[in-house]
Design a protein that fits this description.
This protein starts with 6 loop residues before the first strand and ends with a strand. By secondary structure, it is α/β, with parallel strands linked by helices. The strands form 3 sheets. The chain has a 7-stranded mixed beta sheet. Strands 3-8-9-10-12-11 form a 6-stranded mixed beta sheet, covered by helices on one side. Strands 1-2 form a two-stranded antiparallel ribbon. The protein is 27% helix and 19% strand. α1 packs across α3 and α2 packs across α3.
């Protein structure tokens, strides 16, 4: 007699397995996916092998006791029976379903610039955006930095609480979708846990995203250094390249040399633009964004930073876009 599915908090093992297979794609090896599934749902499955058995069931590879409604997904060709790999497919985040997008980068709470953010909000409210993309480094995490730091500066809990206040205000003012792409400063929290308390790393309750979701509703996170694809425009924070992006002319030119396509980045706190035509006469343009934090911090008082933000309009054809990059000086949009 076939086994029955075991309910787990409104879900079943089979449903959980289908969600993970859909999320990670058909090419991820079953054992690798089973490890991820068990790590994140250890109350639902007895062990990794239990999770693997359920996955094999939905793939039509055993008689787990469920009706197979999905055909077995395509798997990597492996005629030589090589050992299963932990290779993971790195997929972009597709930004779709929006017409007008506001973009803010490098806010660095609690060192945010109220005047710069206010100038951007004035513009966003005026044009009516339906999505706000927060392009990394929303929080500074000064206390988790590997560099020398003043112990009298704000504590990590204070920074997280203040970020929650800011995000709630942004949601209340703009009443639109909030997308949070993690930058190198945002990643400091999980990296700190990984270094100092590896046994706790991966627990859902202490993840950075969980801490924010407990304070703010409706935030969608984009992590793992994923590229955001918005029609024919690629958006990154700027730390995705291991050696960073530098150009003696401007940041946008450095991005052009790396990206070879229409692209936008924050990270360097400078507004710049660079365009180049290719042999076919197609023009590829790259932009870098100004920041929304204090311009002369103690660790780098002399710099070339400026305040700024951007707007993005997306055509429904899935290709065309209109990008406008703005500078802010003394609280006024230029």
């Amino acid at each position: 007699m076939p086994k029955k599915e075991v309910p787990v908090k409104g879900f079943t093992k089979v449903n959980i397995a289908r969600q993970y297979r859909d999320k990670f794609g058909a090419t991820m090896p079953t054992l690798t996916l089973a490890r991820i599934m068990y790590k994140e749902n250890d109350l639902a499955f007895k062990n990794v092998e239990d999770a693997r058995s359920v996955l094999r069931g939905i793939e039509g590879k055993n008689n787990y006791g469920c009706v197979v409604t999905h055909p077995a997904p395509e798997r990597p060709r492996n005629p030589y029976k090589l050992p299963e790999s932990d290779e993971r497919e790195w997929l972009p985040y597709i930004l779709t379903g929006f017409k007008k997008v506001g973009i803010l980068s490098d806010i660095h709470v609690p060192y945010h610039s109220i005047t710069a953010i206010t100038a951007a909000l004035d513009h966003f409210v005026k044009i009516g955006i339906d999505c706000l993309l927060l392009d990394g480094d929303l929080i500074d995490f000064y206390g988790l930095s590997k560099y020398e730091k003043d112990p009298k500066k704000r504590s990590v809990p204070d920074e997280i609480d203040k970020l929650g206040e800011l995000l709630n205000q942004l949601g209340n003012i703009l009443k639109c979708k909030l997308l949070y792409k993690l930058g190198n400063h945002d990643e400091r929290y999980d990296n700190f846990i990984m270094r100092k308390a590896p046994e706790l790393y991966g627990l859902p309750d202490i993840k950075f995203e969980t801490l924010i979701n407990n304070r703010v509703e409706g935030i969608e996170f984009i992590g793992d250094k994923r590229i955001i694809q918005a029609n024919a425009l690629d958006i990154i924070h700027g730390h995705e390249f291991v050696q960073g992006i530098f150009s003696p002319v401007n940041v946008a030119r450095g991005l052009s040399l790396r990206a070879k396509t229409n692209a936008v980045q924050g990270h360097n706190h400078q507004t710049s633009e660079h365009s180049e035509p290719n042999l076919r006469g197609e023009i590829k343009t790259t932009w870098s964004l100004g920041c929304n934090c204090e311009l002369h911090p103690e660790y780098m008082p002399i710099n070339k930073w400026n305040h700024g933000y951007a707007t993005l309009e997306l055509d429904s054809n899935g290709i065309d876009f209109s990008f406008k990059n703005y500078r802010v000086k003394n609280g006024k949009t230029l």
